[in-house]
Amino acid sequence: MIANRGYDAYAKNKILTASPAELTLMLYEGAIKFCNIALVGIEESDVEKAHNNIQKVENIVGELQATLDPKYEVSKDFSNVYNYLMDRLIEANMKKDKEILEEALGHLRTMRDTWKEVMQQNKLAKAN
After folding, report:
1. Please, how many CA atoms are within 13 Å of residue 97, restricted to the half-sphere of its CB?
2. CB under 8 Å to 47, separation ≥6 — which residues?
3. What is the rounded distance in angstroms from the CA atom of residue 19 to the CA atom of residue 115?
4. SS percent in the chain: helix, strand, coil, step 5
5. How far is C-alpha 81 from the chain's CA centre?
6. Contact assessment for residue 87 and residue 62, using Cβ atoms and an 8 Å cutoff
7. C-alpha–C-alpha distance, residues 93 and 119, integer Å
8. Residue 60: closest CA among 103, 24, 114, 93
9. Residues with Cβ within 8 Å of residue 82, at least 6 apart in sequence
């Protein structure tokens, strides 16, 4: 019990002290985590587990979309991707379709990896 409180405090502090870029990375990581749990739910025929975790992914994708800044042209592209992901997640949830969910997971991993690369490039640029 005490260990859980320590971890909770650590996790909360990590979020409160994270930069906007790090928060975005955390959102991608969370979406990937819950997508993987949902896949396990589908494999185990645990409808509730699959449903609840797909909804968590949908909520995270919604949050990612809400944080887009429309003054940047690339925001429109990200918005289109997030809309597509949301459609696929809804379909995967309705059908409990592993293939559709794996497709969404692949997109999330690609976006996370790209985001990590951008963060690294920005870090290097600031160092120079």
Report:
1. 12
2. 41, 96
3. 13
4. 90, 0, 10
5. 13
6. no
7. 32
8. 24
9. 61, 62, 64, 65, 68
Q: Which residues, given as ranges, of the chain have pLDDT below 70? A: 1-3, 6-16
- pLDDT tens-digit series, residues 61-91: 999 999 999 999 999 999 999 999 999 999 9
- Looking at residue 96, the DSSP 8-state letter turns out to be T
The span from the CA of 39 to the CA of 25, in Å, is: 21
Contact call for residues 105 and 54 (beta carbons, < 8 A): no
Answer whether 0.70 is exceeded by the pTM: yes
Q: Do 49 and 24 meet the contact criterion of CB atoms below 8 Å apart?
A: no
Give me the count of residues in the chain.
128
Q: Write down the pLDDT at residue 62.
A: 98
Here the tokens at position 45 are 């025929």
